[in-house]
Amino acid sequence: MEEAFFFENEGHRIFGMLHYPSWESRNGSSSANVGIVFCHAFGDEAFRTHREMVVYARRLAKEGYAVLRFDYRGCGDSEGNFEDFTLKTRISDIRRAVDTLVEKSGVESIGLLGLRFGGALAAALATRDPRIEYLILWAPIVNGTKYVQFLQQSQMAHELGNFGKVISTRKRITEKLASSGTFDLMANIISQEVYKELLSFNPWKTSNRYPKHILIIGIEGDSHKASSLRALKEAYPNAETTLIKEKQFWFDKINQNPSNLYETTSQWLRSILHDFRQ
Amino acid sequence: MEKVVSFVNKGLKMYGIVHIPDEIPVSFNNRKIGVLLLHAGRQARRGPHKFYVKVARALCEEGFYVLRYDNRGYGDSEGTENVTANEWFDDALHAIKFFSEYQSLDKLILWGLCGGSVLAIHSAANEPSKIDSLILFNLIYRPDIANSKGEFKTVYRKLLTLGFWRKFFSASPIYYIKKGYPNVKRLFKRAFCPSQFEINFEDSVIRLVDSLPNSFSLASKPTSFIFSTGDPLVGNVNEDFLGNPVWSKHLKGIPIDLSFVEGADHNFSSVEYEKAAIDKTVTIAVKRALMP
Q1: CA-CA distance, B171 to A71, in Å (whole number)?
Q2: Residue that terminates a domain, selected from A183, A201, A219
Q3: What are phi and psi of A122, to 5 degrees?
Q4: Which pTM value belongs to this model?
Q5: ipTM of this predicted complex?
Q6: A8, A18, A54: best to mutate for the B interface, most B CBs within 10 A
């Protein structure tokens, strides 16, 4: 069963979709008390990967987990404009999504699954919120500065491919940010505040608190994967890191689900279930 | 106000969002006027850069009821991606019925982008009494470019021009190759070694595009065509669309208007192009709403 609804955070409406665990899988299953909040990627990467997240949420529900997907404020169907919200508000939205999942499904063990920049945001909350017992990161963004460079390159490639010329050179973006305080990333407006937050974002620095179970999956062919995984292994010595062969589905729409990614994640989840409250 | 809604078609649950205006303008004469957004194929109700969300919110601000929903196999709706365009057409008909009844609409305008525009024309032909008019962005009007082979030839024709390579090397070539290569490879594979699913899907698209002129005259609804001049799939509108003997025969006698968003790409993916598309939508819809 699924339930689509709006919930509130700091006076704004957030779109959520709760996938309840299927009854068949609940009977005698150790996953019945376990919930997962999905943290989607940034900007148009979220648009391109939406269906892959939906398909996996449905699969996890069949495997007995309660899954909540939601759109951060300013994204997707949630209230507000993209440019009006920050990385801090996104982390606050994840926290509220966790509250909502607990309230609506009654699960006692909660984890976060984050894709790309959603992984970085999920990690940021996991270091602060003791309710987060496990963390799954799919091809996470490790370095905010490099991610900004990647977004700029994406914009340049997009402009060259679609408009036949590059408008957004780094110099022009800097000038635009200085003059108007924003820049146009494929019709998503990046505010100066978010730009600065992205440049300095580092949830991976050593923390006193991190979840007991962490799975980090890198995708072969993702240019930053090796150094990213090394950096994450240093930050989270207890994490299980793995590199798998999979399509980089955040780049462009593929008509094929990332089944290796799904399978690796589900297997790992099964392997840690014994640790959760039944 | 925005509300989550769902309707069931052939046992599959389709999800959407209805935008309900705070008040209906006096100029609408107390009529509830709806706009149904039909998304481009292989997209969903939010759209790239939330394009459909922004279009819906802008229309709702002006007093329109708006429904945007996910076709089967896409967005949050049920079903697999193994679909045909005919099934999406069926979803569109169900959405029209659902939206008209759910909000007790007095008038319904269909709005489409790309494949959504194709569905809008066929839906209007199928349900002429329920539809008032059409607003169609970047309609795919040529069957020869409605499949991967045509798309490949059209989009990648620019690879053969000197101008493209000059710009290419002045930008960020390594990144561009990295990002562009998988797209070219995928489109090439779809065009020249397609799976059975792709063959079935593209056959259904071509059939729908092929029969568009006929459906257009059957529907016979006031229509606004808006094209992006930077979209290679649009082609030469004057020659290939208005000048095409089949289309010109079927366009005759139906009130149409034609406008362009200069330089824009297929999905209006810059703030400037997006704003132009939204402004045009609102202006046209308000004009239609004021008509008796």
Answers
A1: 34
A2: A201
A3: -60, -40
A4: 0.91
A5: 0.92
A6: A54
